[in-house]
Amino acid sequence: MVKKLNFWDHLEDLRIRVINIVITIATISLFCFMFGLKQYSIFGFQIWLPLEEYRLFGQSMLLPAFEFKDNIASMVFSIIRDDLIPSHIKLIMVKPVDAIMANVQISLFLGVLIGMPIIVQQIGKFIFPALYTHEKRIFLRTIAPATFLFIFGALFAYYLMIPFFIDFLYGYGIAMEAQTFLSINEFISFVLILMLGFGLIFELPVFMAALTFFGVVKPEFWKTHWRIAVVIMIIIGGFITPDASGITQMMVAVPMMILYTIGYFISGHIYKKKEKAKLEEEKQE
Fold first, then answer.
1. Are 51 and 130 contacting, i.e. CB atoms less than 8 angstroms apart?
2. Beta partners for residue 42, in sequence order
3. Does 1 score more than 50 pLDDT?
4. Percentage of the chain surpassing pLDDT 70?
5. 212 to 39, 129, 172, 209, 263: CA distances (angstroms)
6. At a CB cut-off of 8 Å and minimum separation 6, what does 189 contact?
């Protein structure tokens, strides 16, 4: 049975969930910004721990590894730099705060990424009281594919789209024998925005299927308004890409069009199942 709550109860519950999510992200982000990882050998296995060995009173002790420079965010930055920056492009600091801001951005991104299970749990606790039992089951069954699609979208951007964009955009400078530089802050902002953007873009089929399942729109809606959807996708592509060439913009829009088509067919399948179940219930009555 659905629990009845008034407006103020919903507002208070929303406030609690938002505070819990903010605390989760802030705690993990601060941890990534303040601590480093050290490699240790335990039972023959090499593992990384946020601990450092100190000698106090002649005894060896493992204590938290406070690192404001060689922190977890800096380690992640080194991995991203080595993976995505070609040897002919030099990273530079344009402003004194560039390196710090890059660390802050990576820390916040890790806070959201690592804290995602708790974030989803808090969202679920807010939504669940308004759902029926079968709707709760559908919500729980959606978490796994939604998480997979977000991760797949972020990895798709990291391994395919971002290297292509960097090679494409800086290729003209190399052809003109110009020195190519990229600021640390702009580089990290570019990478994180694209990873987050593609992660959310790959959620499109889930979003479309959810709207159809809850009866907000029918599959015909997606078919009828596909031209408007294409325009919106092109606008989004222009918003998250760093140039005005139109080529990178379409490189973002085309995967969205494919995902939109997949979402349409999934919505149609869900709608047919719902209609079939409704007819069976009417027959039984």
1. no
2. 45
3. no
4. 90
5. 49, 21, 45, 5, 10
6. 105
Both tokens of 185, joined, read 């802050």
Which of 56-65, 193-202, 226-235, 271-280 is the least confident region?
56-65
pLDDT of residue 2: 47
Looking at residue 252, its pLDDT comes to: 86
100 closest CA partner among 215, 209, 212, 184: 184
Rounded CA gap, 52 and 36, in Å?
9
Listed ranges 31-45, 212-226, 235-249; the one with the highest mean pLDDT: 212-226
Give CA–CA dist 267/270, Å, rounded: 5
Residue listed under structure tokens 């996708």: 233
Residue keyed to tokens 């989004």: 236
Can you tell me whether residue 64 is helix, strand or coil? strand
Segments making up each domain of the chain, as ranges = 36-67, 203-271
What is the rounded CA–CA span in Å between residue 175 and residue 170? Answer: 9
Please give the structure tokens belonging to residue 206.
Answer: 């889930």
Eight-class DSSP state of 69: S
